Amino acid sequence: MATTFVWSGRTRQGEMQKGELVAKSREEAIAQLRKQNILATSVQPKAAERKFGLPGFGGGVGDKDIVIFTRQFSTMIDAGLPLVQCLEILSNQTENKTLAKTIGLVRADVESGATYADALRKYPKVFDDLYVNMVAAGEAGGILDTILNRLAKHIEKAMKLKKEIKSAMVYPGVIVSVAVIVIGVLMVWVIPIFASMFTDFGGVLPLPTRIVMAASGFMQHNILWLVLGAGAALYGVKRWYGTEGGRKLVDRYALGVPVLGDLIRKAAVAKFTRTLGTLISSGVPILEGLSIVAKTAGNKTVEQALITARQSISEGKTFSEPLGQSGVFPPMVVQMIAVGETTGALDAMLSKIADFYDDEVDSAVAALTSLLEPMLMVFLGIVIGFIVIAMYLPIFQMGSVVS
Q1: 310-328 burial, b for 16+ CB within 10 Å, e for fewer?
Q2: 233 FRET partner, CA 20 to 30 A, in 8, 90, 113, 378?
Q3: What's the distance, Cα to Cα, between the start and end of the chain in Å?
Q4: What are 322-348's pLDDT values in tens digits?
Q5: In this predicted model, which residue has the larger pLDDT, 164 or 217?
Q6: Confidence band of 228 (pLDDT split at 50, 70, 90)
Q7: DSSP class of 206
Q8: What string of DSSP letters covers 299-315?
Q9: Do 397 and 210 contact (CB within 8 A), yes or no?
Q10: What CA dihedral angle connects 131, 306, 342 and 140, to 10 degrees?
Q11: pTM beyond cutoff 0.70
Q12: Of the candidates 103, 134, 130, which has an alpha carbon nearest to the alpha carbon of residue 119?
């Protein structure tokens, strides 16, 4: 396994230099320095650094980092720089430390005789199957720079699609979170003050007031259990969704939810067609491409439909027929894929479908946002309005008694 070494040495001109390099052994590190006309005076393995931070924050490699690396690498390859030199330059200038270290390890593997694709395959958390298989196709066809450019464009479009879907969920999520906090504060701290005042006043309180006071008393005395129960419920749902059966059930019903299901379906079609079209146009066999696409579908129902389609092709049948029978994909998509199969231009047809459904996702996001906003406002208005009216009813009663 490759290791990072810290070295210091002297050049032929007598100048002292120091730095870091990646090698499989100390002897290999010294040999690398010798090739650079540096006489090593010290070569030691780099001490492991302790990293402090919250789990899941920092230290990861994002899509944006991969896009920048891929575009820079493509430009260097197109300019005629050797593969190892490109990797060395990028490992030194990449800002993301995790990616920089990974590139250094990949460079060491390539320098040892491995292909670039095989070297990338060792780091699946950074370079997924789609990336590795397209690189392998590019190496085999001698068009690595073209493939890398295509990969960068594909990742950018996938990032745009993901961002649009997330943006549709942010606003409703923020509104609901703020509403829950406001209602919680009212019920636990504000309502009890009114409740003690009404109790001292005596008399029979209106029914809405009694309902709100009972709910407030329950929340006040069981707040810890309610928080723990909500946390346990969320954890249980997450664990259940992580199971094969749970995810299949949720993903199947999610496609049938009004408006939201339409967005999920269109996003899945855009992602599947864009990825498969990119793979096929890059020279990856369709059976291998479908295996990769199915794993990254993001929805178990869509994944199962693609696996069935792959089985159909392996048996010598068409690609479009099982897609139509699945009931997951819109008829237009199935018909366009059938035309692409017949004309031998499946990759081009898939790209056209992806472009169309990218626009459809934009429309679906806008429709979902425009529908959720008034629904949330009406719901919150009813809940908070009921609490306010329930608290003011006894005050109106006191006013009428006094008058």
Answers
A1: bebbeeeeebbbbbbebeb
A2: 378
A3: 89
A4: 888 888 888 999 999 999 988 888 888
A5: 217
A6: very high
A7: P
A8: SHHHHHHHHHHHHHHHT
A9: no
A10: 20
A11: no
A12: 103
